[in-house]
């Protein structure tokens, strides 16, 4: 039996790479049912001021096709608490680059009141969409 019933994680998942796969694999190893939020192009433009290389619908299909993923939802908003109100997960999986961030410290407090854990995973060293873009000259 896994530690959690329903898990949730999010990402842009642009230029899908092994780091993306690792976080999804680790998340699924800890929960029975994994929901993945894929950021819409509009949301990415809003906070990164750039459009993903791979269009939203294609990124959605890539994530849907993975054996570790049980459900895929559009992430139209970065507020994880609003996502919880709709999806009712009991664990949020996040990259450890957010650990200690004021936003996530507040979120942890809020989630603690409703019985949701926040689990931080280490990023896979040496790989990111930014590194992939640099390698191919984007």
Characteristics of this structure?
138 residues, alpha/beta, 5-stranded parallel beta sheet, 41% helix
How would you describe the overall organization of this protein?
This protein has about 140 residues and is α/β, with parallel strands linked by helices. The protein has helices at about 20-30, 40-50, 55-65, 80-85, 100-115, 130-135; strands at about 5-10, 30-40, 70-75, 90-95, 115-120. The longest helix is centred in the N-terminal third of the chain and has 13 residues, at about 20-30. The protein is globular, with a radius of gyration of 15 Å.
Kindly report the average pLDDT value: 92
Rg value: 15 Å
> What is the helix/strand order?
EHEHHEHEHEH
The helix count comes to 6
User: What is the straight-line distance between the termini?
Assistant: 44 Å
- What overall geometry do the principal axes of the alpha carbons give? globular
What is the β-strand count?
A: 5
Instruction: List the strand order in the largest sheet.
Output: 3-2-1-4-5
* Main sheet: strands, sense, barrel: 5 strands, parallel
Q: How much beta, percentage-wise?
A: 15-25%
Unreliable parts: none
């Amino acid at each position: 039996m896994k530690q959690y019933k329903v898990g949730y994680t999010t990402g842009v998942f642009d230029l899908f790479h092994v780091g993306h796969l690792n976080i999804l694999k680790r998340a699924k190893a800890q929960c029975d049912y994994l929901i993945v939020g894929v950021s819409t192009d509009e949301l990415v433009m809003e906070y990164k001021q750039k459009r993903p290389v791979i269009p939203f619908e294609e990124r959605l299909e890539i994530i849907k096709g993975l054996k570790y993923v049980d459900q895929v939802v559009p992430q139209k908003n970065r507020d994880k608490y609003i996502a919880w109100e709709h999806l009712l997960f009991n664990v949020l999986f996040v990259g450890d680059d957010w650990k200690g961030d004021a936003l996530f410290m507040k979120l942890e407090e809020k989630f603690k009141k409703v019985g949701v854990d926040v689990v931080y995973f280490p990023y896979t060293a040496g790989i990111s969409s930014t590194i992939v873009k640099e390698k191919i000259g984007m």
